[in-house]
Amino acid sequence: MKQMDIHWLLYLSIGLSKEKDPDLLLEMILEAAMDLTVCDGGTLYIRTGDELSFRTMITKSLGIYVNGKDNAVDMPPVPLTRKNVCACCALDGELINLPDVYASERYDFSGAKQYDTLTGYRTKSMMAVPMENDYGDVIGVLQLINATSGGKTVAFDAEYETVIRSIASQAAICLTNMNYAAELSEQLDSFVKVMSEAIDARSPYNANHTRQMVKVGGQFIDWLSSTGRWVFSTAEKRQLITSIWLHDVGKLVIPLEIMDKETRLGSRLEIVEQRYKIFKLANRVMWLENRISDKEYLARSRALNEENELIHKANSMGFLDDSTMEQLAALTCACHEGPDGGEIPALTGEERDALMVRKGTLTEWERAIMENHVVMTERILSQMTFSRNYKKVTEWASAHHELLNGKGYPRKLAGESIPREVRLITIVDIYDALTARDRPYKPSMPPEKAWAALRDMAQDGRLDRELVELFIECVSREEFET
């Protein structure tokens, strides 16, 4: 072998080890083998079950240059029978070097004639090399056709057999490693989706949250890349989308009575109602026993009904105005006579705290438990071993409630300490929370009002103003899929 060929092979080896795209890798292999052996055509097959599928095909004299990435190789797959050179190569796992395919006495290669009929080509000399993975399984075949010399078709020089086998072997290793990486990514994706579905399935009010965030977030990321505003590589997008899938994994440990708390009192409302029934019965007993007058009985009955109505009203309101808050403040001090004549508070301390929540349904204690889900997210994800392509998942997923002004949670991060990727997740999370139709504690907000709310949060320093405007520009397009 020429010294130049040796240097060329070294450069090829470096190139094969660096290439990450399987289609480009296969194209590089085929072109390199054809250049080295000076042949007119070549085909690279990948084994799929009991067939060999065309992946890359080049025939210089016919102007054919197609690959599996940019073009469809419009050829039927080759069945693993002994009528085709490449099939015999795959079945036997041996290199085949034939001066003339049609004149071979050892094999019936009628399949070659059939493919020549489809292409109008005349296959003569051929070298087929199996591509084996680390288990010794043939995962593909490198087939070279019609070696040339002085403008004529000649046999493939046996000197190149070892070299071509070496190229095929190294390519098979690279391709196998890529397949392993793809399998690991698929396994991670499936695990992530299962975990996400488990989280959402715990609560009917959270069933679509993560999936919707992934959908909207994915569209936003793609739009940012397509417009050049913020270009994501495939690996960067996968890492960010994985962070979105796992951002609420900590909710697995949050009690459902808090996650699903639809009203301020929640399950305590039934206890309060029973207490007021007792108050009303005690009032009636006192009236029947002539311990109170008719007027006093009616006044007490009216007061109990008004208090009960106020409790029900406040229990389900999205936001308590000042007037309602004042009425509740007075009610928290109220006591009523029980069956034994003793005074019973209208509400317990826990019930008073719950009803006096101005916005939402959670008390400070319950909200602290709910907010702890991001701490649990970090704790859970930190127990997982992520590859370098996913090394930021734990950090990004567990910081989606941090705000630029330092008033978020759990770490009170601010400004530049919050990565831009986290800022994006936060915006998508808030947008879905505002527009979701399945939240028990608030009505769904139309997109336009949600955009205004995001702008308000950006104006007061909580959200990234530039990203908010880009997000609104993205989701306000007619072609945006909600």
Key phrases:
482 residues, alpha+beta, Beta-Lactamase, Hypothetical protein af1432, 3 domains, eight-stranded antiparallel beta sheet, 10 strands, 12% strand
Count up the domains. 3
Query: How confident is the prediction overall: mean pLDDT?
Result: 87
DSSP strand content: 5-15%
Question: Which architecture of the largest domain would the CATH scheme give at its second level?
Answer: 2-Layer Sandwich
The major beta sheet can be summarized as:
8 strands, antiparallel
Number of beta strands = 10
Overall geometry: elongated
* CATH C-level class of the largest domain: Alpha Beta
State the helical fraction: 40-55%
Beginning-to-end CA distance, first to last residue: 62 Å
Radius of gyration: 36 Å
Unreliable spans are none
CATH topology of the largest domain: Beta-Lactamase
Identify the CATH homologous superfamily of the largest domain. GAF domain
H and E order: HHEEEEHEHEEEHHHHHHHEEHHHHHHH
Number of helices: 18
- Structural class, by secondary structure, is alpha+beta
Question: How would you briefly describe this protein structure?
Answer:
The chain has 482 residues and is of the alpha+beta class.
